[in-house]
Write a structure and sequence with these properties.
Length: about 190
């Protein structure tokens, strides 16, 4: 009886994976961004210009079977060269030693056009579990008849968990850079 149950489970999993298609990130229409408070009063936004990802997506069930991403830490861009150089330094990403940060999905819970992606985020060689909310999940055929998927990933991390500890205390209280970092990634990918 156990053998039959194992075979049935394997078939269900295989069938689910068979429906998934591999998608290639459209870098021209994807943005890997972040937001962090500066001086406790304003948001500073930045992005990473160089990245890649592996996406296996099932359009029928609107679920991700695989999502993993690599981001080049030296490609950080906040629009201010001096600040970007500081972010690449040992005070933050230490890009010379840790050129990549990675995310590997462990599970996905679908809820229509939204969902919850749980996985491991690695920055500076430190891996921690994170949960990213999937919003605005949509599929479409493009002008050339290719299937495309688009979605937004949103979440929060504490940068101190990843040894991104540089800061300065403010004279009247507070700090120069908040510990909480908001993640906002807009993804568009085309079926291979």
């Amino acid at each position: 009886m156990r053998s039959i149950a194992k075979i049935a489970s394997a078939l269900i999993i295989s069938f689910g994976l068979a429906n998934a298609s591999e998608y290639k990130i459209d870098n021209a229409h994807t943005n890997v961004g972040f937001i962090v408070k500066h001086l406790m009063i304003t948001n500073v936004k930045g992005e990473f210009k160089t990245f890649d990802a592996k996406v296996d997506f099932d359009e029928v069930t609107k679920t991700f079977k695989v999502f993993s991403a690599n981001v080049d830490t030296a490609s950080v861009d906040t629009g201010i060269e001096k600040r970007d150089a500081h972010l690449k330094s040992a005070d933050f990403f230490l890009s010379d030693k840790f050129p990549k940060m990675t995310f590997v999905m462990k599970s996905y819970k679908a809820d229509g056009n939204e969902g919850e992606m749980s996985g491991d985020l690695t920055i500076r060689g430190i891996t921690k579990p994170v949960v990213l909310n999937v919003e605005d999940l949509a599929t479409i055929k493009d002008f050339e008849g290719n299937n495309r998927v688009g979605f937004t990933l949103k979440g929060k991390i504490n940068r101190m968990d990843y040894d991104l500890k540089w800061n300065k205390a403010l004279e009247l209280g507070g700090v120069a850079v908040a510990e909480e970092v908001k993640i906002s990634v807009d993804v568009e990918a085309v079926e291979k």
